[in-house]
Amino acid sequence: MVNKGDIVARRSYNEDIFLKVIDVTVSRGEKIALLSGVLYRLFADAGLEDLAVKTKQQISHYHLSDSQDTYQKLHKIVFARNFQKKEEYFEIPPHVLHLDGDEEYLDQCLSAYRRLGLKASGLCFPEHRHASVLEEALGKHNADILVLTGHDSYKKKKGNREDMDSYRSSRHFVEAVKTARQIQPHKDQLVIFAGGCQSHFEAIIEAGANFASSPKRMLIHALDPVFIVESISQTPMDSIVSLKEIIEHTVTGTDGVGGIETLGKLRRGYPNTEYNFAVKN
Question: For the segment 254-271, what is each residue's pLDDT rounded down to a tens digit?
Answer without folding.
Answer: 999 999 999 999 998 888
